[in-house]
């Protein structure tokens, strides 16, 4: 029931409560606004000013979210493929997430989000030596962003090593593409067709992959490449880690590819 | 002049602000939301317990050190997300902590000591979230926000163990203020309203920015977004690829989702559009739950939309209206009648002045009390006038007949209006009588209760 009139509050109490409410609402609105107003030059200055006083509170309360569900476009999934090699040389490959392994669905979804997160924090090896000369701060941020990715990756590898003691563990990121609508209408194909899985190689930006995955002129040398061979049918795509709008294989299979990867890379460069 | 207008606008704005935030509200919708939120939190914690050491501790997917580094600036990205779980490596301690989390959350869901367990459940959830960085998604957001706002309200005052205990405690509650606070009555309160308003606005922000984010893409505009959601193998729970054969349906769903999300913030408030907006919310989230493998997220979002449901409507729909529910209705009736009367009065004035007044040549007649439509000069038409031909007389008579018909039509209209107003008044009298009886009953009960208390 809603009574017709507000209860009488003292002006001081009313002012105090109103200030708290406004502050909280600011902390609710500012983070997604900040998320939407970021561009190549960084954040909108006015939004950054608005966000500044409430940012910490928002983060502590877990309200620093963008709410970009399936946005700007629903894109491909990003998975983790792990190869566990025994001392006798036999190797088992598993994919995360896996509905057969993780149950109930919520547990599966947590693993799914983990594999998405690894790609979200991905940052290519680097930075190029030229960047360090031109913009040392950007170069330093690059090193830190790369370190973040490597720590997360290593943590995942470490978890698997403890799960499979005494065995070698290697992981790689795999992108599961979504079939193009028109191509699917013309010739329906299983969504888990091997041709839709594409290995995401860890190669430096702007340097050609020479098979070692190592950049030629980097400040911080990258680690050895994730050395799990790609699955059959994925070799062709795996040779090029640069984002492309679409790929079409020899069989006329068309795969759409979201542009979020290039967008993400652009955003990921901290300024 | 401008200063007066500005002051008037300011006064009106402050009044509206006070009404929006500080008007007492029943907690029943929040009580239902408490059950949904509590059960969802409990389920989430139980699922985590099936593989706890993979998510907490030093051997987790994201180990303690990495998780801490993701927040404390070790990798150049610092925020205020903090948790003591980064420092707990002992599995026994982690299990004990998680056991406590499950216990507290179960109490919150059941409405046991809700004043304490609600903030505790929220706190334990936030602590867990900052540790689980990298494995979270929309469910964790909405369930945490719901818990956050629910802890501000007396959400444990209905369908709860607290309500049962309150009935048992009886008279002790009247003397012990702490107990009365701990076991609140399900009566209208500002706290319930503030919690409701905050969650309502938070939902609006979520949908609005969700819609804006979608609007930056192309697939929500060209209608292919539904296909790319349905064609995602990892999300898929039921096969929805058949939708590729129906591009018009798929694109309609994409456009509907986009426009609904962007307009939710505006259209969920008016009574006229609210049912449509909420029905769309149920449909969209049910679709996500059924087809995109996020049953938990979909169900929780539907539950959160409950916050826009009027508690009175909720109670009436389950056949348990509040005893003083009709008092609110009477107020609503009063308001409606007052506005209707104002409109009627304005209409009446217009009618008297514009419609029912005969032309100048027919005199200044009106249909006011005791007045007549016809003037003497009109009546005189029947009598022969010197110098007037039969033809002229016939024309004058036809004109008079037209005026009379017109006046009769207006009279009938007015009669219908008066009849409607009479019905409204009768209804108002009936409700006022009921209200009087209820108030009398409440007073009697209060007297009896006081008498018993005095005697004891």
Show the helix and strand layout.
The complex is a heterodimer of chains A (271) and B (456).
Chain A: H1 11-36, E1 38-39, E2 42-43, H2 45-60, E3 77-85, E4 91-96, H3 105-120, H4 129-134, H5 136-163, E5 168-176, E6 178-179, H6 181-186, E7 197-200, H7 235-238, E8 246-248, E9 254-256, H8 260-268
Antiparallel strand pairs in A: 1-2, 3-4, 3-5, 5-7, 6-9, 8-9
Helix pairs in contact in A: 1-2
Chain B: H1 2-22, H2 28-49, H3 64-72, H4 91-110, H5 114-131, H6 138-150, H7 161-169, H8 172-175, H9 177-182, H10 190-215, H11 219-222, H12 225-230, H13 247-267, H14 274-291, H15 295-304, H16 311-317, H17 325-355, H18 376-379, H19 390-455
Would you write up a description of this structure?
The complex is a heterodimer of chains A (271) and B (456). Chain A is α+β, with helices and mostly antiparallel strands and 271 residues long. Chain A has helices at residues 11-36, 45-60, 105-120, 129-134, 136-163, 181-186, 235-238, 260-268; strands at residues 38-39, 42-43, 77-85, 91-96, 168-176, 178-179, 197-200, 246-248, 254-256. In chain A, a hairpin with a 2-residue loop joins strand 1 and strand 2. Chain B contains 19 helices and no strands. Chain B is mostly helical.
